[in-house]
Amino acid sequence: MRPERADGQRQLPAPDGRITDVVAAVHRFDRVRVVPVSVDAAGPVRHVAAGPLNLRLTLGRRGGPGRLLRRVPPRSAPGPPGPH
Fold this sequence. Notes:
By secondary structure, the protein is α+β, with helices and mostly antiparallel strands. The chain has helices spanning 17-26, 64-69, and strands spanning 11-14, 31-34, 37-42, 45-50, 53-58.
């Protein structure tokens, strides 16, 4: 999935400026908007609303690569860019 509209414009809807700074430091967007974001996480289905964006995600079992990555110690796993 690409954060791109049908006209090719890449938009980032985010809940606050802190999130926009972190994501925009790694990815390029044509437009960054601070919008209300809500997540309903009941069971394996997630409903996410961020401004005009509405997603319904169904989570499945973790595959082989996910199980391997789960073994990476937290101190070794990279975090978001910026001061820690």
